[in-house]
Design goal:
Helix content: 25-40%
Number of helices: 7
Strand content: 25-35%
CATH architecture of the largest domain: Alpha-Beta Complex
CATH topology of the largest domain: Cyclic Phosphodiesterase, Chain: A
Radius of gyration: 22 Å
Distance between the termini: 53 Å
Shape: elongated
CATH class of the largest domain: Alpha Beta
Number of domains: 2
Number of strands: 11
Structural class: alpha/beta
């Protein structure tokens, strides 16, 4: 079915691309993809893509082996986007129709607020968000400088250690997040915590886990928990590096890294500090 409003939309979208993008929106695209650490080989999704300035920037980062898709409710915007960058997949969408975990990165700038119903489909569930294992909480180690010293001192005495993914866990309420239990096969997780969280730090009892659905990035923990979407598998990995990061007001940035012992492994612990101290490790 033809859209009688499409020609007028294309005219308006062309003006948007020629005037508003270079004046207002183009400068933010590199910052957004930097904040989301978009890199070569990834699959990226731009939600509310407009004429595609952000998707185009992401496409330059994921090339040559990655791919980018752009979603927007405006046929006129998508028509101009397809003319400017025909190599990107442009799709009309008020709701997302990609399977969960289809993308390594999901980005959006100055657009998501215009969607009619942002609750209908959660774009974060289509993202393959990098898992992390919490080692240190902010209330446990509020002194960041001392935390860094403790991690540096513990590094030579804690060699890379093995962890094994367990079953699905929901420690409080499903809407508060869904996690995987983690078995500390070599005792390295326990030893690292013991070495780092000596007085004056105050350790809090909380089991090691991998976050599957975090309440700050998705409200669908309840849905995931109710559907039983995880099938337990005996997967093991090795943690070999600690990265301490900080939130600079826009994105998480790495402050320093410490290799555990002398070995190298596939797993990475990420220690994060927020505006008021370390958040997770």
């Amino acid at each position: 079915m033809s859209n009688p409003e499409l020609p007028a939309q294309i005219v308006a979208s062309t003006a948007y691309e020629e005037f508003f993008v270079p004046a207002l929106f183009g400068q933010w695209a590199p910052r957004v993809v930097d904040a989301d650490s978009v890199e070569a080989g990834q699959q990226a999704l731009d939600v509310a893509c407009g004429t595609g300035v952000l998707a185009w920037e992401a496409a330059t980062r994921v090339a040559p082996t990655g791919a980018v898709a752009g979603l927007d409710p405006s046929p006129g915007m998508l028509a101009v986007a397809a003319r400017v960058a025909p190599g990107i997949e442009w799709r009309p969408a008020e709701s997302l129709h990609y399977p969960d975990q289809s993308f390594d990165a999901v980005v959006s700038q100055f657009g998501l607020m215009f969607f009619a119903d942002r609750r209908e489909r959660d774009p974060m569930m289509a993202a393959r968000i990098g898992a992390h294992i919490t080692v240190v909480y902010p209330e446990e180690a509020p002194d960041v400088d001392l935390l860094v010293e403790r991690v540096r001192a513990a590094r030579p005495t804690v060699p890379p250690f093995r962890l094994r993914l367990g079953g699905t866990a929901c420690f409080e309420r499903a809407k508060s997040g869904v996690y995987l239990d983690v078995d500390d096969l070599d005792g390295g997780y326990r030893k690292l915590r013991e070495d780092v969280l000596r007085p004056p730090f105050h350790p809090v009892a909380f089991p090691p886990h991998v976050t599957i659905v975090h309440p700050r990035t998705s409200p669908r923990g309840r849905d995931f928990w109710d559907t039983g979407g995880y099938r337990r598998e005996a997967q093991e990995f090795t943690a070999a590096e600690v990265t301490i990061t900080a939130f600079d007001g826009t994105a998480w940035v790495a402050l320093t890294k410490f290799a555990l012992g002398e070995g190298r492994g596939a797993g990475v612990f990420t220690c994060r500090r927020g505006r008021r101290g370390p958040v997770r490790c």
